[in-house]
Design brief:
This protein is of the alpha+beta class. The chain has 22 helices and 22 strands. Helices cover 51% and strands 17% of the residues.
């Protein structure tokens, strides 16, 4: 019969054969990306040239190094821009190259080289992020085994590629093997680690009628499984497809920026050409017309606008990094401040991801210490997470453990050992275990969202243990901080059972709880929030969270326990697994966005004044360069304010987190 919620938490198994561990996906090296190599060459040449220039070195050396920086960082965007021109579009990268060459033409070589380096570095980071995400998606496919043991109608066995399995086939899953296909158990009992799919921290007991998923890891029992889905439709395959689909979509903000870039680029090119050609037609001298046009190109150059945006965001990224939060790009940092709804995973995100003993209910006159010592002695040889939790609880209290002999474990039932001359059994509640006073204790613990474990001595219940996944210390503070920032409490999305989810929700202050979700259910929940007009922040840690992380407006992954795919798909990684860092980085992003607006006003005003001066009068080139560079320095220094330690403290939502020292 199908496993009950109580038995799904089940207990200890004997040591299983070592499971074949899929190789870690090959991660693309930074040096393997041509964009990164060219950006590094441009940066190195620029820094070397700047050093020669500041030290009054030979001019020809500095000129050669600057030329190298231009070529290394500018040839690729120049070719891309020319290709865009052939397609009758104007690429803003080509505009930046033209502006850099224009600056060099009138002697502002440093300005142009810096602009080239900025754009080359940005392109390299984008290429690296794309490559790493592709690596992780390919690595996820390795979770599913390449072959499976199919049972023939005559009772024989054959090894076949999992891609050839058809709906209705019966496969044998031996102890320690990975499940080759989604299906239903026809015979056998075991415990299956399905954390890669559901995110549940504990192995789930599987018996006749239960569903298993491809890529999950079988425990110590053998299972016969009827295939229920084709290989292309398995949960793991759908996760890969959903990540690819969500990652390939473009946000409306991105499309809007692209339209603005096209208009600005076209306008600036047209204005520069007119400013050069019209005076010539009217009889002006060539040198004067060229000087005015080049001055216009310099003062109208978007260098100040670029620096108006980047320093606040990059400084915010650096500050967050010092506090254990990895924000993958300046675009991500800007988008974080736009979120107005939050979805949170449970296991590994708001909780530690490992069970612990939370309740001791002794019966039949035994003490709490005696109950825990008996259970720990019987579980001492166990490898099951619940067994390890019981032993850890006893050691934490400093209890001496009696010697145990004759240890045995039955998948889906529990463990048994001879302790102090008595047969001690530890296992899941059931009709043969939960008798008399034990029934009330089991019911109370399960209703509270605990996993109940019954301890018997010579066949009689002597107590019940309650185990639960421990909430992280900062979980409640993070929930309050996110609610204060967005104006609405976060939503809890978890693959764990609803009662455990409800218990955690009460502890951390959540009201909207959705349990028992598979990856596509989490994705649907995130999309529902987005359809309602919200910019959703998804926080998770597992492979099962990856589709939702990719589809959300912004995704945050817990770095210490997070799966590779979740870490690569997410926009932000909390390296130290501190939930309180999530509202802090959102608040820091909002402050960075305010500084971006300030800088854009400053940069825009300076450009407008200098352009009007150049068009309406005669703007001396040195004054135009000084005004252009002055605005660049001002906006740069304004952005550097976010590097200070005080900026992080100010970003902490004190109404939720209290004083930082706490």
């Amino acid at each position: 019969m199908p496993a009950t919620p109580a038995s799904s938490a089940l207990l200890t198994r004997p040591p299983a054969p070592a499971a074949p561990v899929p190789p870690r996906p090959r991660r693309t090296r930074v040096s393997a990306l041509p964009e990164a190599r060219w950006a590094a060459a441009a940066t190195a040449a620029f820094l070397a040239a700047l050093g020669v220039h500041l030290l009054d070195g030979p001019g020809w050396v500095a000129a050669a190094l600057y030329a190298t920086a231009y070529l290394a960082g500018g040839w690729e965007p120049a070719l891309a821009g020319l290709a865009a021109l052939r397609a009758r579009t104007l690429d803003v990268d080509l505009l930046m190259v033209v502006a850099a060459l224009g600056a060099a033409a009138i002697g502002e070589v440093v300005d142009g080289a810096l602009l080239i380096v900025i754009f080359a570095t940005s392109g390299a980071l984008e290429a690296l992020a794309t490559a790493r995400t592709a690596d992780s998606v390919r690595g996820l496919l390795d979770l599913a085994p390449a072959t499976a043991t199919r049972l023939r109608e005559d009772g024989g066995e054959e090894s076949v590629p999992t891609a050839e399995l058809a709906v209705g086939d019966v496969v044998l899953i031996r102890p320690g093997e990975r499940v080759g296909a989604d299906g239903t158990v026809l015979d056998g009992a075991s415990e299956v680690d399905q954390s890669t799919v559901t995110g549940e921290p504990l192995p789930a007991a599987k018996a006749v009628g239960d569903e298993v998923y491809a890529g999950t890891l079988n425990g110590s029992g053998a299972l016969r499984v009827r295939v229920g889905r084709d290989a292309a439709d398995t949960v793991i395959a759908r996760i890969v497809a959903l990540v690819a689909e969500a990652s390939g979509t473009r946000a409306p903000t991105q499309l809007f920026v692209e339209r603005i870039e096209q208009r600005y680029a076209a306008g600036l090119v047209a204005a520069t050409l007119l400013l050069f050609a019209v005076p010539l037609v009217l009889g002006a001298e060539l040198d004067g017309a060229l000087l005015r046009a080049m001055t216009f190109m310099i003062v109208a150059s978007p260098c100040a606008v670029v620096l108006a945006t980047m320093p606040p965001l990059l400084c915010a990224i650096a500050n967050a990094g010092r506090h254990g939060v990895l924000v993958k790009s300046a675009v991500v940092m800007e988008r974080l401040g736009q979120v107005d709804a939050v979805a949170l995973d449970k296991t590994g995100t708001l909780t530690e991801g490992t069970p612990e003993v939370t309740e001791l209910r002794p019966l039949d006159g035994v003490t709490e210490e005696q109950l825990l010592a008996l259970a720990a002695a019987a579980e001492h040889a166990s490898e099951h997470p619940l067994g390890r939790a019981v032993v850890a609880a006893a050691r934490g209290r400093g209890l001496p453990l009696p010697a145990a002999e004759g240890f045995t474990a039955t998948p889906g039932v529990g463990v048994r050992a001879l302790v102090g001359g008595s047969v001690v059994a530890v296992g899941a509640p059931g009709p043969h275990r939960s008798r008399g006073p034990a029934v009330a204790a089991v019911t109370e613990l399960e209703e509270a969202g605990r996993t109940a474990v019954v301890v018997l001595r010579d066949g009689e219940p002597v107590g019940v243990l309650g185990l639960a996944d421990r909430p992280r210390t900062q979980a409640a503070a993070a929930v309050r901080g996110l609610a204060a920032l967005t104006g609405r409490p976060p939503v809890l999305l978890t693959g764990d059972n609803p009662r455990a989810a409800e218990r955690l929700a009460r502890e951390v202050g959540l009201t909207d709880v959705r349990g028992g979700l598979l990856p596509h259910d989490k994705l649907a929940a995130v999309r529902d929030l987005a359809t309602g007009g919200h910019r959703v922040l998804m926080v998770g840690d597992g492979v099962n969270d990856a589709p939702a992380l990719a589809a959300a407006h912004s995704g945050v992954a817990m770095g210490r326990v997070g799966a590779d795919l979740a870490l690569e798909t997410a926009d932000v990684v909390v390296v130290r697994d501190e939930p309180a860092a999530v509202p802090a980085v959102v608040a820091l992003s909002r402050r960075a966005r305010r500084l971006v607006v300030q800088n854009l006003v400053i940069a825009g005003a300076c450009i407008a004044v200098l352009v009007v001066w150049d068009l309406a009068g005669t703007l001396p080139l040195p004054l135009g360069v000084a005004g252009h560079e002055g605005s660049t320095v001002i906006v740069g220094l304004n952005g550097l304010r976010l590097l200070r330690e005080r900026a992080w403290r100010r970003a902490l939502p004190h109404e939720a987190l209290g004083r930082e020292e706490s």
